[in-house]
Design a protein that fits this description.
The protein is mostly helical. It contains 14 helices and 2 strands. It has helices at residues 3-19, 21-28, 32-53, 63-90, 92-99, 102-113, 120-138, 154-175, 183-198, 211-238, 241-247, 250-263, 269-287, 297-300; strands spanning 118-119, 303-304. It has a two-stranded antiparallel ribbon with strand order 1-2.
């Protein structure tokens, strides 16, 4: 099997695993704070074994690496708390669609902090995503067919998903400062930070009493954190950026299918259009699509300063 084919399989598997995370969060039956704590705990054990096996713990850690990775880890943990909390309020489908505004958060940060140019194409995709967001927000969760899995705190759920996307972008920007550091090691530091952050708030006095809940929590740590990181980072090393970006949209598609099949949630027509607009706009941003044909190369690269 050549490198490209292997990377494609790894990225597809990683995004499919990630798309099922909402089901495991909901089926664990545990408070979100505890879910994220145990995900970090099981993930830390898994990644520690992996990093030790790969020889990544010898002579690679410096105070600078630990400090920067810890800052990104705090953002990642807040991202998980907000995203998982949004599932019960706005549904897995809507929360995942809104969460995929991440590329636009990154573009905004790039313009603010790295003087990156905002091209007309990027602004156009941003406008389409914003229009999709308005459609989702204006669609009432109390009308239409089968709204059973939509929580009463719909708009709070949308805000939480947006906040999760924001903190994911913060983590991505911070992680840029760790170029050359093995990603498995960064992930290990991040989940260890999560354990330290959430230990004071975890409910150790009422631990899950059944094997089912423990299996859900362990799967979130071992599979959705440890195994997923291995597959995703392996794919990133083998695939060109445009293919990584296109395969990443397996994640929201799987998440929406899981929501439909497992929980019977059906989106309203306006929500379908809005979610589709966000995902298409995010794909256009990631893959560099344009909405018009430029007459000259100079015109195609025109940017807003």
């Amino acid at each position: 099997m050549d490198s490209m084919a292997r990377g494609t399989i790894e990225m597809t598997a990683a995004m499919t695993i990630l798309g099922t995370i909402g089901w495991f969060v909901v089926m664990s039956g545990q408070p979100i704070m505890d879910v994220v704590f145990w995900r970090c705990a099981f993930g830390a054990v898994t990644l520690l074994i992996i990093c030790a096996a790969l020889g990544l713990l010898r002579g690679r850690l410096t105070l600078r690496i630990v400090a920067i990775a810890a800052l990104g880890g705090a953002a990642i943990v807040i991202n998980w708390l907000l995203l998982f909390s949004s599932f019960s309020r706005a549904s897995i489908s809507i929360a995942t669609a809104v969460y995929n505004t991440q590329p636009f958060m990154l573009v905004g940060f790039g313009a603010l902090f790295f003087s990156e140019r905002l091209t007309m194409a990027k602004l156009a995709w941003l406008g389409i995503a914003f229009a999709g967001m308005l459609l989702i927000v204006q669609a009432s969760p109390d009308v239409g067919p089968n709204t059973g899995s939509v929580g009463t705190d719909y708009f709070t759920g949308i805000a939480m998903a947006l906040g999760a996307a924001f903190f994911w972008a913060v983590a991505a920007i911070v992680t840029k400062k760790l170029k050359g550091t093995p990603p498995h090691l960064i992930a290990l530091i991040q989940v260890c930070v999560g354990v330290v952050m959430l230990a004071p708030f975890a409910n150790f006095s009422q631990l899950p009493a059944d094997a089912w809940s423990w299996s859900m929590l362990a799967t979130l740590g071992v599979v959705h954190t440890g195994l997923m990181y291995i597959l995703m980072y392996g794919a990133i090393q083998r695939l060109p950026t445009h293919l990584q970006g296109s395969l990443s949209f397996i994640y929201p598609v799987v998440a929406i299918l899981v929501d439909v099949v497992a929980f019977g949630h059906r989106l309203h027509p306006a929500q379908i259009v809005g979610a589709s607009a966000i995902l298409v706009a995010a794909a256009g941003m990631n893959l560099g699509w344009t909405l018009w044909k430029s007459k000259t190369p100079a015109e195609s690269t025109q940017a807003i300063k």
